[in-house]
C-alpha cells in the first residue's frame, strides 16, 4: 500500500474504535512498553494524544516518571519552521491544546535532541522494516534524523503492521521497535 492508502485505511480503522477500546488498548500497549523498554535514568520523548484523531493515550507515562526514575520531554510542533523542539515535563499547568489539537507544553526547560534516549513515535500504520505512516508533515522524520545514533525509536500502534509501505522516501527514518496490543515488533 502507498502512504496515502495507509493513511486513509488506518484513519478509518481508528474511527471504528470506541472510547472504551481506546482506553483498554492504550493500557495494554503502555504496560507492554514499560515491561519491555528500560526507562530508568533515561530521558523519554513522549507524544501526547490528539483526542480527535483517536491516538493512543500516553498520559499515564507522565505520572510514572518519578516512580520509575525517568525524565519526560514533550514535543512542540513549530508549523512555521516545520520542525519540533522539546520541553521537559514538570506539571500539567504547562500544557495547552494547540490550534491543531495537539496537547503541548507552552513553557519549560528546553531539552535538546542529544539528551533524548528514547522517542515514542505516533503512527497510523507501520511495515515490517520499521517504516511508518503518520499524518504526512514529516515532523517526526526530521526530528529523528537529529537524534543520537543510539537513541531508541519506539512506535506505538493499535494495529498490526503491514508487509510493506510502497513509497518510502530517502528521508524516512525507520523505527527500532513497535509495540501493539498483540505483539512486540523488533525491526
Automatic annotation (TrEMBL):
Positions bound to ATP: 3-7, 132-140
Requisite cofactors: Mg(2+)
Sites where the protein binds substrate: 48, 55
Matching Gene3D superfamilies: NagB/RpiA/CoA transferase-like (3.40.50.10420)
GO annotation (BP), single: tetrahydrofolate interconversion
Main enzyme class: ligase
Annotated catalysed reactions: (6S)-5-formyl-5,6,7,8-tetrahydrofolate + ATP = (6R)-5,10-methenyltetrahydrofolate + ADP + phosphate
Molecular function terms, GO-annotated: 5-formyltetrahydrofolate cyclo-ligase activity; ATP binding; metal ion binding
Enzyme Commission designation: 6.3.3.2
Alphabetical keyword list: ATP-binding, Ligase, Magnesium, Metal-binding, Nucleotide-binding
Entry-linked InterPro entries: FTHF_cligase, FTHF_cligase-like_sf, NagB/RpiA_transferase-like
Protein family: Belongs to the 5-formyltetrahydrofolate cyclo-ligase family.
Name by which UniProt lists this protein: 5-formyltetrahydrofolate cyclo-ligase
Amino acid at each position: 500500500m502507498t502512504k496515502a492508502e495507509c493513511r486513509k485505511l488506518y484513519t478509518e480503522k481508528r474511527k471504528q474504535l470506541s472510547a472504551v477500546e481506546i482506553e483498554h488498548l492504550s493500557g495494554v500497549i503502555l504496560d507492554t512498553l514499560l515491561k519491555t523498554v528500560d526507562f530508568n535514568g533515561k530521558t523519554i520523548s513522549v507524544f501526547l494524544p490528539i483526542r480527535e484523531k483517536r491516538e493512543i493515550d500516553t498520559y499515564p507515562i507522565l505520572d510514572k516518571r518519578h516512580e520509575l526514575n525517568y525524565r519526560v520531554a514533550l514535543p512542540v510542533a513549530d508549523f512555521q519552521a516545520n520542525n519540533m523542539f522539546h520541553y521537559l515535563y514538570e506539571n500539567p499547568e504547562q500544557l495547552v491544546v494547540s490550534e491543531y489539537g495537539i496537547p503541548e507544553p507552552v513553557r519549560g526547560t528546553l531539552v535538546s535532541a542529544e539528551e533524548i534516549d528514547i522517542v515514542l513515535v505516533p503512527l497510523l500504520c507501520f511495515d515490517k522494516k520499521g517504516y511508518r505512516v503518520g499524518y504526512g508533515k514529516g515532523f517526526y522524520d526530521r526530528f529523528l534524523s537529529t537524534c543520537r545514533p543510539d537513541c531508541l525509536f519506539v512506535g506505538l500502534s493499535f494495529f498490526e503492521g503491514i508487509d510493506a509501505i510502497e513509497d518510502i522516501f530517502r528521508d524516512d527514518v525507520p523505527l527500532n521497535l513497535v509495540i501493539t496490543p498483540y505483539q512486540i515488533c523488533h525491526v
